[in-house]
Amino acid sequence: MTFNDRIFGVLLIALAVAYGWGASQFPEPFGGSEAIGPDTFPTLLAVVLGLCSLYLIVRPDPDHAWPWSRTGVELVIAVVVLVFYAMLLEPLGFIISTTLAVGTLCWRMGAEPLRAYLVGAVAGVVVFLLFNFALDLALPLGLLSFLEVS
Amino acid sequence: METLGFLIDGFGVALAPHNLMFALMGAFLGTLIGALPGLGPANGVAILIPLAFSLGLAPETALIMLTAVYAGAMYGGRISSILLNIPGDEPAMMTCLDGYPMAQQGKAAEALAISAIASFIGSLVATVGLILLAPVLARFALTFGPAEYFALFLLAFATLGGITGKNPVKTVVAACLGLMVATVGIDSTGVQRYTFGTLELYEGIDFIIAIVGLFAISELLFFIEERAGGGKKKMVVNKLKLSWGDIRNVLPSSIRGGILGFIAGVLPGAGASLGSFIGYTLEKKVVGKKGFFGQGDPRGVAGPEAGNNGASSGALVPMLTLGVPGSGTTAVLLALLISLNITPGPLMFTQNADIVWGVIAALLIGNFLLLILNIPLVGIFVKLLSVPPMYLLPCVTMIAFVGIYSISNTTFDLYFMVAFGIAGYVLRKLEIPLVPVILGLLLGPEMEKNLSHAMDISDGDWTILWNSGLAIGLWVFAGVGLILPYIVGPILRRRMKVDAAATAGNPEGD
């Protein structure tokens, strides 16, 4: 099966065209156009990428299987966890969000749930203390801000 | 003798107590990173860069620490090769061939000690080579004009896939993607490019975020797919019985390996994997029938191990003198330089002489530190092998989050990092190498600047790009670098595989 490279090649061509078109829309720089404008280098890139993706479509490599079924779900879960981690880092504070994120990741990667969240909590507290006291970098406390010693 | 003076100044920098402390810390962390399963040197250095930043370290201190990490990771990679027959990183592959049989014969401690000594000698030889060669190359590079630089960057991309690389077209695709991301932001003439009016994109995409995302996050996703699971079984290492005779026995192999590795490291497109491969093959040839390679010959451990460490020091030569890295990890070190506002390249040797020579001196000192660390403390590093990746990788991910967050204290960067991680995973699935993407990100602005300078000089005449002998030479070299993998690649790869399969007997995938 050689679908991956073909599909990817088509996507890349679309990207190259969009990118090259984007370059042609740049306003002319102040002081008139010169031999090399802001669009020259991007246009060059678009052409090279376009040619390479044509090659990929014509002569694709054999495929690697994509993890559709269960592992695919795990991957999606992991990505969702990462996005939530980023989203909740400030509102919930570093320690709580780390406990949840690291714990969930460990658990989904095959650790026992209790131990997983314990590892998450310990890692969160240790890193928080290390950063805030030893390295003097403030990580957000969030919900736990009542613990703050000033 | 000018060099010697600089070197002495460099020692002055590297021996300053806090620099020495950070070198020691870096060496320890590096070995840790090399030894831990699922954390390669490039990955490890990438995660530590944002931390070095947010700690507000002085440029030379940050660079010294991360160079020590780099050197340490090369040491650490051998531990799992020897004990488990699983190379910690790609260059450590050849160390499996004789290291694992030695461990099976109950000589694991000896194999670890010999490989530490060989690593030390290989690095030492290569660092001396670096000291001799780098200033010469830097002086030569001063004659480069913008056109030559443009060609040189192309050469770097063309050879990055390496002679053993698979599909050069994919290297080019990867490089284009990286260069494209690098064009986002406001360019030198003040025009907004691909910012879509988003304020956060005006200054461009911070390549540190991209690098950490591409390496650390995609590694996590990859591990999930491969069912990370539990740790390896506990390893017991016998008590060390090493005589001077044993060390003297592997000395010539180590020196030969170091020299070969250094050459492989300096040359574009060769890299540490080839360095260790050549080191091993040469040892087999030189020792001939007297050796028992593949059945636990100490010289088969020393040769490739010295070669791989020699190559990693050698790879610093093009990075420091030309600003063009030859490997993933040196690309990450280049990222550090650029973000510290140091322009890499020949001028660095005059403008930032203290930093360059401080780093070189630190490399020498780091080697001694690593040797001292590695022989008595090997037990600790061995224990690390049994850390289960299912706990380790989430924690590494957290460190990546903390590091990126602490650079600017915004969560916007974190989303970007996750996005780059997903992109990295997809690219790796499609066998698109990530290192050219990163190199594109790093070199993009410089490349465009040199192109427009060259054009300004020639008044818009494109032929200036191949108008000098030097530039033509670089173009030809780049062309060869792209085509050669088609011809030599399959043969070399097959030979490396056959060697590995024939001697290891039972390769455990990976």
From TrEMBL, chain A:
<dbReference type="Pfam" id="PF07331">
    <property type="entry name" value="TctB"/>
</dbReference>
<keyword id="KW-0812">Transmembrane</keyword>
<keyword id="KW-1133">Transmembrane helix</keyword>
<feature type="transmembrane region" description="Helical">
    <location>
        <begin position="65"/>
        <end position="86"/>
    </location>
</feature>
<keyword id="KW-0472">Membrane</keyword>
<feature type="transmembrane region" description="Helical">
    <location>
        <begin position="41"/>
        <end position="58"/>
    </location>
</feature>
<dbReference type="InterPro" id="IPR009936">
    <property type="entry name" value="DUF1468"/>
</dbReference>
<protein>
    <submittedName>
        <fullName>Tripartite tricarboxylate transporter TctB family protein</fullName>
    </submittedName>
</protein>
<feature type="transmembrane region" description="Helical">
    <location>
        <begin position="116"/>
        <end position="135"/>
    </location>
</feature>
<feature type="transmembrane region" description="Helical">
    <location>
        <begin position="92"/>
        <end position="109"/>
    </location>
</feature>
<feature type="domain" description="DUF1468">
    <location>
        <begin position="7"/>
        <end position="140"/>
    </location>
</feature>
Automatic annotation (TrEMBL), chain B:
<feature type="transmembrane region" description="Helical">
    <location>
        <begin position="355"/>
        <end position="382"/>
    </location>
</feature>
<keyword id="KW-1133">Transmembrane helix</keyword>
<feature type="transmembrane region" description="Helical">
    <location>
        <begin position="204"/>
        <end position="224"/>
    </location>
</feature>
<dbReference type="Pfam" id="PF01970">
    <property type="entry name" value="TctA"/>
</dbReference>
<keyword id="KW-0812">Transmembrane</keyword>
<protein>
    <submittedName>
        <fullName>Tripartite tricarboxylate transporter permease</fullName>
    </submittedName>
</protein>
<feature type="transmembrane region" description="Helical">
    <location>
        <begin position="111"/>
        <end position="134"/>
    </location>
</feature>
<keyword id="KW-0472">Membrane</keyword>
<feature type="domain" description="DUF112">
    <location>
        <begin position="20"/>
        <end position="439"/>
    </location>
</feature>
<feature type="transmembrane region" description="Helical">
    <location>
        <begin position="20"/>
        <end position="39"/>
    </location>
</feature>
<dbReference type="InterPro" id="IPR002823">
    <property type="entry name" value="DUF112_TM"/>
</dbReference>
<feature type="transmembrane region" description="Helical">
    <location>
        <begin position="45"/>
        <end position="71"/>
    </location>
</feature>
<feature type="transmembrane region" description="Helical">
    <location>
        <begin position="258"/>
        <end position="282"/>
    </location>
</feature>
<feature type="transmembrane region" description="Helical">
    <location>
        <begin position="388"/>
        <end position="407"/>
    </location>
</feature>
<feature type="transmembrane region" description="Helical">
    <location>
        <begin position="464"/>
        <end position="488"/>
    </location>
</feature>
<feature type="transmembrane region" description="Helical">
    <location>
        <begin position="322"/>
        <end position="343"/>
    </location>
</feature>
<feature type="transmembrane region" description="Helical">
    <location>
        <begin position="140"/>
        <end position="160"/>
    </location>
</feature>
<feature type="transmembrane region" description="Helical">
    <location>
        <begin position="414"/>
        <end position="444"/>
    </location>
</feature>
